[in-house]
Inverse folding.
């Protein structure tokens, strides 16, 4: 019974007491009036009225006494009625709360949100101080805290995170709710260290059960008030736990599915990226020969659009399929457990023209081994083939150049030129060179006396001696000018001692001719006359694309030629610049200055007599 109801009963009791007192006064007054009327001359009617009034008052007093006698019984009945109404109201509120809880926990599949909502509602319904929800971990099989909340709907952390693990473990193990109105005095738990240490009193703990398996525990308590929870609270929380367990399991399953879907989506994106980035073109078909997928490489190679190709028969998409006998081969792959590797096709495409392709065909199968379609992997060999043809052309050109260069320069120089083709392009470079000219004296008149065949043999023999001397010293054999040899030093490779190399080549040339004369005892004694000069010249592949020479031009080249023309058979003439470079390494004598063609000043020359290094 509420305080308001008790006040109303007190007021009613007071009113009845006052009414009884008033009636007693009225009765006494009537009795007195009745006595006064006796012996007096009164009208009978007045007497009758007074008697009737007295009877009514007496009757009312009796009724008042009866009501007063009923008041305690009425108060007890009202108290019972109020208590019953309170119980019904609490039960109604609990059922309403249970219904609300059911609606709330089934309104979301977000596990974290669901757990927080569930614990907040439990605290509200049970008037608990704190609430905890723990779930079984699949990997460890133990309980893990998921939510810890207080009555203010705030997350608990730190020192407040204190519960009876003994009660929690017992409920998780047995799957039976536990209720204690005062854990400090409860013989079941009073000895537990957590109950004593944390001063726990009212505790209610129920299991979360799904398909007869405990999946978690709900724990609420109050560390101050004893007797807070009742059997009805336990039953209510157990009923709620049954619904919450299912909702939580659904949320966990949903979270697991969502995570799996996310992993699958990530994997699919990864596979799509891999598929799209494969350099080979990939076209897949289904069992009905319709194109199902086509990657970017296939779009580029085959000049296709995936949007237009997917869903269409591959015979329409791959216009060259008939030429490559694809229908027959794809049928074999689809109906039999075979592959076709390295098929060649050279279709004519609208924009690319003729292309060279290699096709690999294999069946697409599901995990059970059923054929789902065919994969066509396309490799574009067009550029590769063009590169191979270009390399073949380059190799042929290198072989041709090698054959030419090996006759004029040292093999190491040949390799350098071939490894740096830029030097063979048209154009010249200014460079300091030592230029050697050697001419066979009297060869023209000699040629008039012997047959042409013998003349050629003799010329080749003498020119061979000159060329060998130049090449041996690392010089470049520029050219043969009829019966003359032109050699360049310090090109194409840098040679610090290029002038000395040229002098050594000339000295060897003259000596080898003398040796040749002694060995063959010929009457026709031909000999070289040599001129050497050092100076800047433009050197390179000079001419036009149709006809060019790898040579040097410039005034320094002209001077070397003029010195050769002034030399006598077997004589080696050095310019002043040449002599200054090698004077400490050779013996040479100065000659009378000469007037060379194309120059106004006289040129000082030196005749080489000996190499000091010999």
């Amino acid at each position: 019974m509420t305080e308001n109801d008790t006040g109303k009963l007190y007021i009613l009791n007071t009113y009845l007491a006052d009414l009884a007192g008033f009636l007693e006064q009225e009765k006494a007054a009537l009795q007195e009036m009745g006595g006064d009327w006796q012996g007096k001359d009164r009208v009978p009617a007045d007497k009758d009225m007074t008697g009737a009034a007295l009877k009514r008052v007496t009757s009312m007093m009796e009724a008042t006494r009866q009501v007063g006698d009923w008041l305690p019984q009425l108060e007890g009945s009202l108290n019972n009625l109020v208590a019953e109404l309170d119980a019904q109201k609490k039960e109604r509120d609990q059922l309403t709360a249970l219904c609300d809880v059911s609606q709330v926990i089934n309104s979301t599949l977000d596990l974290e949100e669901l757990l927080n909502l569930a614990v907040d509602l439990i605290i509200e319904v049970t008037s608990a101080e704190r609430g905890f929800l723990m779930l079984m971990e699949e990997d460890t099989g133990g309980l893990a805290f998921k939510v810890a909340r207080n009555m203010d709907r705030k997350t608990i952390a730190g020192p407040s995170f204190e519960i009876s693990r003994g009660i929690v473990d017992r409920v998780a193990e047995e799957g039976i709710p536990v209720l204690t109105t005062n854990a400090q005095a409860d013989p079941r738990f009073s000895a537990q260290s957590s109950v004593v240490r944390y001063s726990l009193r009212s505790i209610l703990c129920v299991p979360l059960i799904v398909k007869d398996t405990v999946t978690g525990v709900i724990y609420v308590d109050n560390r101050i008030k004893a007797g807070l929870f009742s059997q009805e609270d336990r039953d209510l929380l157990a009923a709620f736990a049954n619904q919450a367990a299912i909702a939580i399991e659904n949320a966990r399953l949903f979270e697991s599915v969502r995570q799996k879907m996310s992993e699958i989506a990530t994997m699919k994106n990864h596979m799509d990226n891999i598929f799209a980035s494969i350099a080979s073109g990939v076209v897949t078909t289904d069992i009905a020969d319709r194109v199902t997928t086509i990657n970017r490489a296939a779009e580029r190679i085959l000049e296709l659009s995936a949007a237009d190709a997917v869903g269409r028969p591959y015979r329409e998409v791959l216009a060259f399929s008939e030429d490559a006998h694809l229908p027959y081969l794809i049928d074999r792959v689809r109906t039999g457990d075979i592959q076709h590797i390295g098929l060649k096709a050279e279709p004519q495409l609208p924009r690319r023209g003729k292309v060279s392709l290699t096709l690999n065909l294999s069946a697409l199968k599901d995990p059970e081994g059923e054929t789902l379609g065919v994969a066509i992997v396309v490799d574009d060999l067009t550029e590769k083939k063009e590169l191979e043809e270009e390399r073949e052309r380059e190799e042929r050109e290198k072989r041709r150049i090698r054959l030419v260069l090996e006759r004029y320069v040292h093999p190491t120089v040949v390799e350098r030129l071939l490894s740096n083709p830029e030097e063979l392009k048209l154009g010249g470079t200014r460079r300091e060179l030592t230029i050697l000219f050697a001419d066979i004296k009297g060869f023209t008149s000699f040629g008039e006396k012997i047959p042409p065949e013998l003349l050629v043999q003799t010329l080749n023999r003498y020119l061979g001696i000159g060329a060998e001397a130049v090449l041996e010293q690392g010089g470049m054999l520029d050219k043969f000018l009829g019966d003359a040899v032109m050699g360049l030093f310090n090109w194409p490779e840098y040679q610090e001692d290029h002038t000395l190399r040229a002098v050594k080549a000339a000295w060897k040339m003259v000596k080898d001719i003398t040796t040749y004369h002694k060995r063959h005892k010929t009457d026709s004694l031909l000999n070289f006359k040599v001129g050497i000069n050092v100076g800047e010249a433009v050197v390179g592949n000079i001419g036009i694309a149709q006809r060019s020479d790898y040579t040097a031009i410039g005034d320094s080249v002209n001077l070397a030629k003029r010195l050769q023309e002034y030399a006598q058979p077997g004589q080696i003439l050095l310019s002043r610049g040449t002599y200054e470079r090698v004077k400490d390494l050779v013996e040479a004598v100065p000659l009378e200055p000469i007037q060379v063609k194309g120059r106004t000043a006289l040129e000082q020359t030196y005749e080489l007599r000996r190499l000091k290094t010999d």
Summary: The mean pLDDT is 77. The chain is about 50% helix and 25% strand.
